[in-house]
Design goal:
Elements lengths: L1 E6 L16 H16 L6 E4 L3 H14 L5 E3 L11 H9 L4 E5 L3 H11 L14 E6 L10 E7 L7
Parallel strand pairs: 1-4, 2-3, 2-4
Antiparallel strand pairs: 1-5, 5-6
Helix pairs in contact: 1-2
Amino acid sequence: MRLYLIQHGEAVAKEVHPDRPLTDSGRDDVRLVGALLAGAGVGISRVINSGKARARQTAEILASAVAPGITVDDVLSGLAPNDSTDWLAGAVDRWTGDTMAVGHLPFMGRMVSRLVAGSEEGGIVDFRPATVVCVERGEAGAGGTAGWMIAWMVRPELLGR
């Protein structure tokens, strides 16, 4: 199983709009990332997001690129900036289909660290808006548990932004 952990695209300042939707540049970055994912043959069975405008918009753009017609689900707790990683860590242990989760910092960084290193501390990756980190659950080893590893990561600036 692959889990695509994504920080939402660049959002407008709270002073400009309290819901903080994506900026034009943020939408462009997310579209670029979506085109890359689609071109690479990424397929997903589930898309979840924090329910905040910027995360939902990011999730919808990416879902339309890699899984047209899929329902984008709002998760009202479990992906917000300061949420515990417990819910998502428990959920991915039960899921079998590739999943895309769109949320916020510092949650996304803590989630990658927890899955890969077993601790939320450590700062394994440096997210920027519209960054995608693909983690992959490995096969169960001698200890009987399957671990997670980073398969790849991409930022919009690698795509010419």
